[in-house]
Amino acid sequence: MLRDSITARSLLQLFLITSSLAAPSTQCPSNDTFDYVVVGGGPAGLVLAEQLTRHPHVKVLLLEAGPDSSLDPHVTTPAYFFETSAYFWNYASAPDPALNGRTPDLWQGRALGGGSSVNGMGYCRGASSVFDEWAEISGNPGLAWNSMFEAFKDTTHFQNDVHPKDQVAVNHTSFGNGPVEITTQRFQLSLDRPFIDLFKSTKNVPEIDFVSGYGIGITEQVDAIRASNRTRSYAWNTFGWLAANRPNFEVRHDAWVSKIGFTGKKADSVTYNDTLTGTMHTVKSKEVVVSAGAIGSPQILMLSGVGPAAHLEALNIPVVHDSPMVGQNLMDHHYAQLVFEAAPSMGTVWQFTGNTTGEQLAEAQYKANGGGLLGLADGNVFGAIRLPDSVFTGLGSYHTSLPADRPHFIYEYSTVPFQTQYQSRSVITPFMALVQPEGRGNVTLATSDYRDYPIINAAYWSTPADKAAILYAYKDYRALIGSPELKQYIPSELFPGANVTSDEDIWSAIQQTSGSFHHPMGTVAIGSVLDENWRVRGVEGLRVIGSPAAPKIITCHTMATSYAMGYRAAQDIIAADLVK
Ligand SMILES: Cc1cc2nc3c(=O)[nH]c(=O)nc-3n(C[C@H](O)[C@H](O)[C@H](O)COP(=O)(O)OP(=O)(O)OC[C@H]3O[C@@H](n4cnc5c(N)ncnc54)[C@H](O)[C@@H]3O)c2cc1C
Ligand SMILES: *[C@@H]1O[C@H](CO)[C@@H](O)[C@H](O)[C@H]1NC(C)=O
Ligand SMILES: *[C@@H]1O[C@H](CO)[C@@H](O)[C@H](O)[C@H]1NC(C)=O
Ligand SMILES: *[C@@H]1O[C@H](CO)[C@@H](O)[C@H](O)[C@H]1NC(C)=O
Ligand SMILES: *[C@@H]1O[C@H](CO)[C@@H](O)[C@H](O)[C@H]1NC(C)=O
Ligand SMILES: *[C@@H]1O[C@H](CO)[C@@H](O)[C@H](O)[C@H]1NC(C)=O
Ligand SMILES: *[C@@H]1O[C@H](CO)[C@@H](O)[C@H](O)[C@H]1NC(C)=O
Ligand SMILES: *[C@@H]1O[C@H](CO)[C@@H](O)[C@H](O)[C@H]1NC(C)=O
Description:
Layout: H1 2-5, H2 8-19, E1 33-39, H3 43-52, E2 60-63, H4 73-76, E3 88-89, E4 108-109, E5 122-123, H5 128-138, H6 145-154, E6 156-158, E7 180-182, H7 192-203, E8 217-220, E9 222-223, E10 225-226, E11 231-232, H8 236-243, E12 249-252, E13 255-263, E14 266-274, E15 279-290, H9 293-303, E16 306-307, H10 309-314, E17 321-322, E18 334-337, E19 339-341, H11 350-353, H12 356-369, E20 381-385, E21 409-414, E22 427-434, E23 442-444, E24 455-457, H13 464-481, E25 493-495, H14 503-513, E26 515-516, E27 542-544, H15 559-578
Parallel strand pairs: 1-2, 1-15, 2-12, 6-7, 15-27, 16-17
Antiparallel strand pairs: 3-4, 5-9, 8-20, 10-11, 13-14, 14-15, 18-22, 18-26, 19-22, 19-25, 20-21, 21-22, 23-24
Helix pairs in contact: 3-8, 3-15, 6-15, 13-14
Residues 273, 275, 278, 280 line the site of one 2-acetamido-2-deoxy-beta-D-glucopyranose (NAG).
């Protein structure tokens, strides 16, 4: 419906604005040998490519399965982020035993920019102790918080919104001079401030930012949005555009990689389908770096013969190297949902999709100066808390022994109706995500054809402690957001509804509405599959970076970390390979 609401005229105007600053041209096929072929153009891959191509003698090719989406207003306009499905890998979980066999989606970005071209743009880093643990696990001191903090700074800068609103707790010194622009929301939803105040007093936590190393508290988060005209600032129109016209860099989009080729145990070529013409190509490379996200990366490795040997043999894939942990250790942030009716004062998505007056107003305001509801990022307010130890009595020590700065849950709300039956009403969707799950999922191949999606066992609430945690948090958040103080903004609970009170019925509501925050990590982890310099152990000339390389999942949304990991990996690779 939203697609139709963007008139041909406004599309043309947007095109005229953007075409004067058009994206660099990217297709110039050659069969040269490259120093590095980077597979996947998300935050990690594009940061790496930009850093490597600063060295003029280093020839880099980046292959991305998706298209260039940078002229599409669904991508550039923040509030249209939920209408970017044209650029998705439409992955879904395998039937999940904890969800009575439900198969929640696990969409991933498929365009230049990867997840950063389709995501909610929320920018956060979370608890610092996670990164110190990464350094310990991997033996790479560059992953410790102090060093990652510099990488977070070097990939971003902070810009005040041109119409700044009231006080927001953001520590400007936590940003540097990097390409991605970070700014605040231009104004608040009427629920935001009352919710923050209630959360602070009820949970006894401070109002903080999630960019300076803190894990626990509440925030109005900052977003990867350009303050001047409220458009998406993402990996392609920042790092990608910086590098794209360098003579030693080539970007090929619509280039779907099917396989990495080996001579013996040395990776030395990449084969892809140019899906614009339907022709296969093989390029030679001295080194291959896979940055294809946490689902695509293990899939490409396994298709190429690097993975659990028995699994590959069962699919008649010749084994190059038996690497049992490829595809294992899948972690994600899973949530369950509530639904509340929203008062007319609430600037929900419905106010510019279902309300004709509101829609006209929003379009006019955005056109004028990037203002109004279309310039806002959704789900900007969230709190992160630790649950009481008593929740886990008799269920082991995993959750209670996490370092003190780690939250167990994020409580957030979206103005997008996640469930189809509420799409014609003005509602908010409060959801609670378990951010340090005990359970681990896995990614395996369904077939040996690269065009078939892999099997994703997402492992929802898969240990007794994870299940106890979501049950507690569901009841806890429901009580908090249903408080009398908030009734004037969200007058009534629509889901699960007043008749749902027993633990059994609440568990059923959780099962019906569990979903993914789209933050998968860990499937080709540094310190197990990878050595401390991102190299796949047991073979030569092959590295993996970005979300799959994370050994443990972080406590906050994951985009910022993929930029910083790409940056850290670039420094490590340059130091090991290029500066001798
Ligand atoms: C819908 C959604 C909402 C999100 N919201 C937020 C948010 O608000 N805040 C936040 O911090 N994080 C968010 N995230 C997560 C964030 O976007 C990711 O953590 C981040 O993009 C991961 O970066 P990456 O570079 O590791 O991988 P990706 O961004 O996944 O990039 C991998 C790239 O590799 C390409 N690729 C994969 N397989 C192949 C192949 N065979 N051949 C060629 N190319 C291939 C993909 O098309 C993709 O472009 C969201 C993600 C999604 C999907
Ligand atoms: C928004 O501003 C940026 C930076 O000035 C510019 O590159 C981009 O083209 C603008 N986008 C639109 C849609 O106006
Ligand atoms: C690249 O190689 C293919 C087949 O190997 C060939 O058809 C094509 O002409 C080559 N392209 C260039 C630019 O050399
Ligand atoms: C802001 O960040 C700096 C590090 O960049 C830190 O030293 C300082 O304590 C932070 N201040 C607040 C108020 O969080
Ligand atoms: C290459 O991609 C095209 C277009 O998607 C498809 O029709 C074709 O079957 C693919 N070829 C191979 C060999 O995978
Ligand atoms: C529709 O939008 C207009 C303009 O923003 C607003 O005044 C009105 O209250 C909205 N209607 C409803 C039912 O929320
Ligand atoms: C993957 O995870 C599922 C669910 O936890 C489990 O049943 C299965 O054995 C795992 N598969 C592999 C290959 O590890
Ligand atoms: C609660 O009521 C709704 C609406 O009548 C119904 O669909 C649902 O099954 C009921 N749930 C329980 C647990 O009784």
